[in-house]
Design brief:
alpha+beta; single chain; seven-stranded mixed sheet; 17% helix; 4 helices; three-stranded antiparallel sheet
Length: 191
């Protein structure tokens, strides 16, 4: 199967995600085998995550509520180079955000489903994949709930999952491996 161009994902010189960074050879082999596929409602866009997410946010901010038409959005943060397009080309739509810097949302040009975003603060090296577009969204429950100051009052947050009134300190909550993956990607020069 041929991987489509990643230029539409905001990566000018895409690299293939190997899943080998900071892992033992056994863990790397598992990372290479286990992938997660997803797509839009009309199936024009199909994609594969070639690696598990760094971290999963459940965002309850008013901006996410408005953009999704729901009480929250569930985003799996992953290296953009690990999002492989299998079919179709998404339309990249620039939208405003609370920060004033905006975000770019990858949408299916036919059914308009939002598949992932690139937030200005994280840049094009990171994709925030909408967990609900994965074929098996149950695999990625939230690691943290953010902006709970504006969560809907009828949403009951589960015990044992951190809940932040606003954003959070990455160094405090992310697993060591995710921090290492992020640092390795940020150390690479942008093309």
């Amino acid at each position: 199967m041929t991987m489509k161009s990643l230029y539409t994902l905001g990566v000018r010189n895409p690299l293939i995600c190997t899943g080998r960074q900071n892992r033992s050879s056994t863990e790397a082999a598992v990372a290479l085998i286990e992938t997660f596929e997803g797509g839009c409602d009309c199936r024009f866009i199909r994609y594969r995550l070639a690696r598990s997410p760094l971290f999963v946010h459940c965002c309850h901010c008013r901006w996410c509520q408005r953009e999704t038409g729901s009480a929250f959005v569930l985003n799996a943060l992953v290296e953009t180079q690990c999002v492989e397009l299998l079919d179709g080309e998404p339309e990249m739509v620039l939208t405003p955000s609370a920060s004033g810097k905006g975000q770019t949302i990858a949408r299916c040009p036919r059914c308009r489903v939002a598949l992932w975003s690139h937030y200005a603060g994280a840049g094009p090296k990171f994709a925030f994949v909408r967990v609900g577009t994965l074929d098996d969204p149950d695999r990625f429950p939230p690691d943290i709930h953010i902006f709970t100051m504006s969560k809907q009052p009828w949403v009951i947050l589960p015990e044992g999952v951190p809940a932040m009134r606003e954003y959070y300190d990455r160094e405090t909550y992310w697993p060591k491996e995710s921090l290492e993956r992020r640092a390795a990607l940020l150390a690479k020069p942008s093309m």
